Amino acid sequence: MKIISKYKDYYDGVQSLGLDKTTIYKRQEQKVETPKLNDTENKLDELLNYGSLITLRPISDKIEKDLYLLGLLIGFCGKIYQCKYVLEHCHKSKTPNAYFFYSKDELVLFLKTKEKEYFLDDLKYEVPGSWRKKKELHWVDAISEFDSPFENMSYLFHEIGQPAFLYPSYIFDFELVKILSYTGAVQRPKENFIVNPKLKNVGFHKVKDAYQCYQEIEQFLNGVLGNSEKTTDNRTDVEKIKSHGFDLKYGFRKRKKKQ
Hints:
Layout: E1 2-5, E2 24-27, E3 30-32, H1 40-47, E4 54-56, E5 65-76, E6 79-90, E7 97-101, H2 104-112, E8 125-126, E9 136-137, H3 139-142, H4 155-160, E10 164-167, H5 174-183, E11 193-195, H6 210-223, H7 237-243
Parallel strand pairs: 1-2
Antiparallel strand pairs: 3-11, 4-5, 5-6, 5-10, 6-7, 8-9, 10-11
């Protein structure tokens, strides 16, 4: 597979192992409107049901940091993967540190390193439906397990004609994240769908290594999207018929034998 792109991704180096020039991946990252087919936006939001914004702030005013936990979906080669996107923002810094997690165990290990700093043990979560006898969960148990990749929205990939996407895009705008944190609502941008995202920027190597990623994109382009580049024959008609054994004087007839 030959990749035509203005940016590098973590799987690009696999091209050096061998290149099939008949498969072309024109990889251009761009924001587009969320496809409206089959009520897509609402379905994607349902997949993010565990991923509504959670903001953690240290009780002590001496610690000028905030921790934001958000949900993210990565569409890749016919499947949709859940991801937890964590931002840690120091008030003295303009840019927060970003972390990406694709399993509950991985996320919990990270949060445990922040347990004392953000007083996580003081957080109380009530078990849904236990209003008569209130039951509280430890913060670790309150984190839902990540679901297996979803495969029932493959039509999305046909709609965009590309092997990868990311949703929603607004969570990468830190100003919008802060507004969402304080108000509980935010006006979503019209273009809330990122096609051909930089997968290295969202830590997707944790899900697929470089070789797996490259191979699956190539197979998806050929098998599902049918994106093989057709080789163009630029020969003239005369050159083509000559290549099939046609003689311009005698045609396909036998030549007269010399006496």
